[in-house]
Structures are given as C-alpha cells and as structure tokens.
Write a structure and sequence with these properties.
Blueprint (H helix, E strand, L loop, with lengths): L7 H6 L2 H59 L2 E2 L15 E2 L2 H18 L4 H16 L3 H12 L5 H17 L3 H13 L7 H14 L3 H13 L7 H13 L11
Parallel strand pairs: 1-2
Helix pairs in contact: 2-3, 2-4, 3-4, 4-5, 4-6, 5-6, 6-7, 7-8, 8-9, 9-10
Length: 256
C-alpha cells in the first residue's frame, strides 16, 4: 500500500494553532478600523477611571483637611488676648471667647456639610455642628442635626454618639421617657460599640430622675459587675450612693 504524502499547505491546515492565528490576522485585516476604535475607547475608559479615582481621592483628602480645621476650632483655647486669626500663633487655635470659638467651628463644619454632603466627613461634621449649636444655645437646630446623624450608615459610631447626646438633651428637658427609650435601645443593640457600662449608668440616672429608684439601683449594680467597668468604678459608686440616699417616690405618684 502506498504512503500518502501531505503537502506543507495541508499540514498547516491541520494545525489548530496556526489556523487560529490565520483567523486573527484575517480579522485584523477586515475589521482593523473597528478594532482600533474599540481599543481607543478602552484606553479612554481606563484613563477616565484612573483620573476619576485620583479626583475622588483628592476630594476625600480635602474633606478631611476641612473637617480637621473645624475640629481644631472646636477644641481650641479661649484666650482674651487672642488675635483675630485663631491660628496666628499656630496650633492650638485661640479665640477671645467661647462663643467666638463655637461660631468659628460651626462655620467650618457647615462648609464641610455643604461641599461634601454625602461623605463620611460630612456626617462627622454634622455631629459636631450639633454640639456647637448646643453650646451656642441653639437647641432646636442642634436636635435637628443630631436626629439626622443618629440613623446614618456611613459612620455608625457617630450615629450612636448622636443618640447619646440626644438622650442627655431629653433628660435635661424632663423628657425622661424619650431619654430612656434611646438608651434602652442602644444597650440592646448588638451593633452599638459604645461602652455598655456607661450607657447603663446614664439610664440609671434617667430612671432615678423619673422615680424608678429600684430599676436605677439594679442598673448601677449591673454596671458595677461588668468586667469592663473598672474605669468607671468611682462614678458607679457615687451614683449608687446618690440613688440610695435619694428619698423614694411619694405614695400615689406614678413613675414614668
């Protein structure tokens, strides 16, 4: 039987790799313009992503700088001899009065909120703006800003801090029911990162103020038994003594 010899063309035709290369070359020849346009679009898209990321990084850095300026004012010193420029002598910032300090901090925080309203920095700025407004006696405005912060998802810790401040505001206003509801919710919330012993102590004060003396004592004892309460031990002892010495609610009076 004779042997069939394959020509070079036939051998190459049976090579799948070579065949694929031939198809690619043909595709470039016939669709070269289209492929070039697609490649150019891909390069433009890649460039847009790169510069977009750089822009966002730059914007986030600027937001942090503006927030830092506000915080430096908030934690600044009161010095009757301070210059008009609070940073004239370098940090820390110095102001002639408490009011001037919190006014300057409020303006800085308001700027962060206006320019970076959807950012984490803006959430923190709104929290501190609420604190400044409390210091300046603008209670209603402070409550509105703290209420907006309390349920944010960008910074849960700041949200819980806002809740804690709101609970204090309600307690000082005599709204013990609302103050207790906020603190009870935080204590039960597994996501709340604030120290439970400190929250129990605050709630005990609310209970005591509303006539729930036994409930207050129970909470203080729970706080004292918490292994993490060592830093608050002296406060817990003082609070327990204060509640124990306080007269019980008068007969016929209903605790809140």
């Amino acid at each position: 039987m004779g042997t069939t010899k394959l020509t070079r063309k036939e051998i190459l035709a049976e090579d799948p790799i070579h065949a694929a290369m031939i198809r690619i070359v043909d595709a470039f020849r016939s669709q070269g313009r289209t492929i070039a346009i697609v490649a150019a679009c891909a390069l433009v898209a890649a460039g847009a992503v790169y510069f977009g990321v750089r822009y966002l990084e730059s914007r986030a850095m600027k937001a942090q700088e503006d927030l830092g300026r506000g915080l430096s004012f908030y934690h600044g010193l009161v010095d009757p001899q301070a210059a008009d420029d609070p940073l004239a002598k370098g940090p820390p910032a110095r102001f002639k009065t408490e009011e001037a300090k919190y006014q300057a901090a409020s303006q800085a925080f308001s700027k962060v909120i206006a320019e970076y309203g959807s950012s984490k920095a803006a959430v923190i700025a709104r929290y501190y703006l609420g604190l400044c407004q409390l210091r300046l006696g603008r209670k209603d405005e402070a409550i509105r800003n703290l209420e907006e912060v309390r349920n944010n998802t960008r910074d849960r810790t700041v949200g819980y801090l806002a809740k804690k401040v709101l609970a204090t505001i309600h307690m000082d206003s005599g709204n013990h029911k609302e103050a207790a509801a906020i603190l009870e919710g935080m204590i039960k919330d597994p996501q709340c990162e604030l120290p439970r012993e400190a929250l129990r102590l605050d709630l005990a004060r609310v209970y005591a103020a509303s006539g729930r003396r036994e409930d207050a004592l129970k909470l203080v004892k729970e706080a004292r038994e918490d292994p993490k309460a060592s830093l608050l031990s002296s406060m817990i002892v003082r609070e327990m003594e204060r509640i124990e010495k306080a007269p019980p609610a008068s007969e016929g009076a209903k605790p809140e």
